[in-house]
Design goal:
alpha/beta, Glutaredoxin, six-stranded mixed sheet
């Protein structure tokens, strides 16, 4: 896991990356890469309890394929994942999330929104698209991916929902409220996500197609 915690709040076993201080520094990409290579164990559930039930910020995302409409988190169970091709734990985690989304491909009540993020500073969409496409092709992963080129979505999640590490996944209910959070990657986290998604779907009513607007 790449930790973006401010000083004094880093999870046990993780190195701290002070974004405000490093975001404008030339060493930011190197710092991110070193942290990612060193890795750490994902933290416990201490923060999740405090955040659970909060309304998530509006997503200001663009499709990397240039076709899909902007995603909405209301109306469906959403697994929102912030990841990057430059982040080894992210690369290990994403195939499992894609497998989960593939198993639920015929489940209209669920969606996976995977946000591909650059390694530091403003995201260059051209480079981000090329790197993301190359990774997905190499891993034979079929996935619609999104970008946050302005950084507004990541900043909003950092301010309101404690986004401070890669990878981070948020499970969001159809009412737009947070159900759970996972920071970092391990095989156990992959299992926990799948179980949480299954449990949340069981509590949701059957899918009802939107009413037709035809006369």
């Amino acid at each position: 896991m790449v930790s973006l915690e401010p000083p004094g709040e880093e999870p046990k076993g993780c190195l701290s990356l002070m974004l405000p201080a490093l975001r404008s520094a030339r060493l930011f990409p190197l710092a991110v890469m070193l942290l990612c290579l060193l890795g750490c164990e994902p933290p416990g559930d201490l923060v999740t309890g405090r955040l659970r039930g909060r309304t998530v910020p509006t997503l200001e995302l663009v499709s990397l394929d240039g076709v899909a409409p902007a995603p909405q988190v209301t109306g469906r169970l959403t697994l929102l994942n912030f990841w990057g091709t430059w982040c080894p734990p992210c690369r290990r985690e994403l195939p499992g999330l894609v497998r989960l989304a593939t198993r639920l491909a015929d489940e209209p009540r669920f969606q996976l929104i995977a946000v591909s993020c650059g390694g530091g500073g403003p995201d260059d969409l051209t480079s981000l698209r090329e790197d993301t496409t190359a990774f997905l092709t190499a891993k034979n992963l079929a996935l619609n991916t999104w970008a946050d080129p302005s950084g507004q979505t990541r900043q909003a999640f950092a301010d309101q929902l404690g986004f401070n590490a890669f990878p981070t996944s948020y499970l969001i209910g159809p009412d737009g409220r947070l159900l759970d959070v996972w920071r970092g990657y391990s095989p156990e986290v992959e299992t926990e996500i799948a179980q949480a998604v299954a449990a949340a779907l069981k509590q949701m009513p059957p899918w009802a197609p939107p009413p037709s607007t035809a006369d």
